[in-house]
Design brief:
The structure is a homodimer.
Chain A (H helix, E strand, L loop, with lengths): L12 H24 L6 H21 L2 H10 L2 H10 L5 H7 L2 H9 L3 H9 L3 H7 L5 H10 L2 H11 L6 H4 L6 E2 L5 H11 L8 E5 L5 E6 H6 L6 H4 L13 H11 L3 E5 L5 E6 H19 L12 H28 L1 H6 L2 H29 L8 H31 L2 H31 L8 H25 L1
Parallel strand pairs in A: 1-2
Antiparallel strand pairs in A: 2-3, 4-5
Protein name (chains A, B): Magnesium transporter MgtE
Main location (chains A, B): membrane
Pfam families (chains A, B): CBS, MgtE, MgtE_N
């Protein structure tokens, strides 16, 4: 699909969003009125107002970039979302479908019939089709594939054969390739004949007769060098290139690190098969950080904010269930000490402080470690050192804050020994939090799992059960 | 500073990192040996091995892109970091300083004398100098400014006059400007005379004689159009442009949304004053998502993973202290019901379950909402709807999981009424968690604060105190 040249936004996005919503509400008001006055012979006036409103709304939508329409759709509750979706001109459907999140895309596709879907998909490039295909009805995909030429079909198949997190699933096929034995002048003339260059073309790919990548010719070099020179003299011989089965996130980090705009993808024989561009990488970087946040909180996946209650419950239930089990175990730990609590009921009031501070501190540690792991800063034999540091931080915090709360406990309950037990328990639980905050994500990573997965739930489980056991255990030993 | 053409990494970054670390350790071993055998007349051999090692290490470092050296520095503990830093060729110091995180940059700068700093900064562009200036010693900055010409000095001053989160602080000044009344042929000849184009030049800026931006000429259009055409015929008249005092994060979202590579920055009179590029925006997008993760966990700022214990304590203490206060309040809530607990000690064992599930569920809700707010999907009068949905999710979860745990409580303690109280308390606390999970970030945003700020600590505080109060209150009313 052609790149859309972005227009300067006259108003901020939020303003435009607000305008659309206002028009939408006015529209609903009019419809409500029309409904209530049915048969009152006011149809004509109502009809006019109605139509006027719709026209204005449609005009607003037409002016917006597909990405902005997508943003508006994301922010609207389902009914309003569909009202707007129906007002969008059908030739823009495809562009917008490619911009919305997976969750919202599902709701939009569910609302379209096969003909509409086919029309929306008709103008898409192979890589865009492959993006969309998994969510389309089977027969639509089948029909679509029929309409493609052999090369396009092969490309869609190839893109579909990769996992979502592999480079092959993210590459596109819009490349300008040239030979190395021609002059820059010839290249310039060739480009002029193309009429249009693909988006994000900051370099041309130099290939031999077998399609093997020989180098890249940055457009910058093409522009500043003497047109008489040969491509081979000017090109970069040893460009950053990727393989389709590599991890896409590694590629995103390379784009970020080396400030790339586009990069060739080659197969194992060095043959050029596709291209990665910075826009896909930016999306990936954002998605990765988001999924880190979500998985730390124990959410399975991105959630449409207006998803149905039932869908949300399913997204969240797994970690809640795990939390229930861990909370139950913590409760059983307390159960072990019911005798002690009966003798000294103050223990019941003080124990959540020990557990709570441990959880908070553990969450800080685990957040730090997960982040450092995501950036590739951990895993080179510096675990022991990291652990030492985190234990040091916990020791300081335990003695200081544990001391404070110990003093408060002494003042409240008039027992010095209770204060000392409190301080000791807090320090020990903070040390446990540091230990687990480092070990949990590292163990998950070693097991090949996402180190952020439910990090918050797991560390809290440790510091709760651990905190109760340490505090009630010490109290039973020394106070009773 | 010239853009470095990235070389294809022969091995993965992790491999290269591991190699450097291995060389570093071998080096330390040799030094240890030399130290222990002092006076044993083996100096000659040791000296040789020592030197050989250093040479190899230095060669490895020379081969690496500055961003990769920066990455290695980030991942090393302070002593090793400085060893490597001393081995880096001084002409690369500047490039590397610009790539490392603020926390690590501080430690590196602290190790350099004024002469070294001046040398490193000498080749920087105005925007890069402005990046670095706040962390340099005053007299170094002063001396640096002396060496600049008037235009450069003005640019540094201007960049320094903006807040860190304003576009003015992120723009660079490397722009190619052209006039609209020349032919593309003339533009092409002009570019050839420049010898080199700035990085990320995907468009040329068209200005009039007063420097007012008239449009942009995408390089793509320059290449595919007839050289006889005038710039004015081919240029885009109404490009996305930014003002220096706008929020940089909004610009980053625009880059992401409209797939921009570079964009002009104009003052209020429309005069072109700088340029934004995608590489800065990518860094910003990553930083924003990271700071969201960190602030949810109650960490004040990014922390060098090998920061000293003391520094880490300072970074984390504020939210720990707040947590201490809230935990103390929760403890006082329990204190209110000490009489009830004395009568029915099972309450002490069961109450953390109610609080814990509430905290977990509340964290899920608040994570969702914070994320939706960051994406600008909340704030258009859909609060009530969101709240309704979250309350719905909580109600389902409360009845289901509360029912399960209520049944377990009945089985354990043989009391039906205890089970019912448990179910009711869990449901109510989950509803409270949903309410607070929506209201806390929205209230923070309305107060002009970061909605993610300490979100996790605050929601846990609510669900702890609330959970204890609800459960113990219901138990006191109905069981005793």
């Amino acid at each position: 699909m052609n790149e859309v040249e972005a227009k300067k936004p006259q108003e901020s996005l939020q303003d435009r969003l607000a305008q659309v919503v206002e028009l939408l509400h006015r529209q609903k008001l009019v419809e409500d009125l029309a409904h209530r006055q049915e048969g009152h012979n006011q149809d004509l006036v109502e009809g006019l107002v109605h139509r006027q409103n719709l026209v204005e709304l449609q005009r607003k939508l037409d002016e917006l970039h597909p990405a902005d329409v997508a943003h508006i759709l994301e922010a609207l509750p389902p009914e309003d979302r569909l009202t707007i979706w129906h007002l969008v001109r059908s030739e823009r459907d495809g562009d917008i479908l490619l911009e919305v999140s997976d969750a919202v895309r599902e709701t939009l596709i569910a609302d379209m019939d096969d003909q509409e879907l086919l029309a929306a998909a008709k103008e898409m490039d192979a890589d865009e089709l492959a993006d969309l295909a998994p969510e389309l009805p089977r027969d639509v995909v089948h029909e679509l594939m029929e309409t493609l030429d052999a090369q396009q079909r092969e490309r869609v198949r190839s893109a579909l054969s990769y996992e979502e997190d592999q480079i092959g699933a993210l590459m596109d096929f819009e490349m300008v390739t040239i030979r190395e034995d021609v002059s820059l002048e010839v290249v310039l003339r060739y480009l002029r004949r193309l009429k249009e260059l693909p988006g994000h073309t900051d370099k041309l790919f130099v290939v031999d007769y077998d399609g093997v990548l020989k180098g890249v010719l940055p457009i910058k070099r093409l522009l500043v060098n003497d047109p008489e020179k040969q491509v081979a003299e000017v090109m970069a011989n040893d460009p950053v290139a990727f393989h389709p089965d590599e991890d896409a996130y590694d590629a995103a980090q390379a784009f970020e690190r080396y400030d790339l705009v586009s990069s060739p993808v080659v197969d194992k024989n060095g043959k050029l098969i596709g291209r990665l561009t910075i826009d896909e990488m930016v999306d990936l970087i954002r998605e990765e950080s988001e999924s880190e946040v979500l998985s730390m909180a124990g959410l399975r996946e991105e959630e449409d904010i207006f998803a149905s209650v039932w869908k949300s419950v399913r997204n969240r239930w797994a970690w809640l269930a795990i939390n229930l089990v861990t909370a139950f175990l913590a409760s059983r730990v307390i159960g072990l000490f019911e005798g002690s609590i009966e003798k000294l009921v103050a223990l019941a009031a003080l124990m959540p402080i020990v557990a709570g501070i441990g959880g908070n501190s553990g969450n800080q540690t685990i957040t730090m470690i997960v982040r450092a792991m995501a950036l590739g800063q951990v895993s080179i034999g510096n675990t022991a050192r990291l652990l030492r540091k985190e234990l040091g931080v916990s020791l300081v915090n335990g003695l200081v804050w544990g001391g404070v709360i110990g003093a408060v406990a002494q003042a409240l309950y008039g027992s010095w020994s209770l204060g000392v037990v409190m301080t000791a328990a807090m320090t020990l639980n903070l040390l446990l939090a540091a230990l687990m905050g480092v070990l949990i994500p590292m163990t998950l990573a070693r097991l090949g799992r996402d180190p952020a997965m439910g990090a918050s739930v797991m560390i809290t489980a440790m510091t709760d059960s651990g905190g109760f056991f340490i505090f009630l255990g010490l109290a039973t030993l020394f106070l009773l």
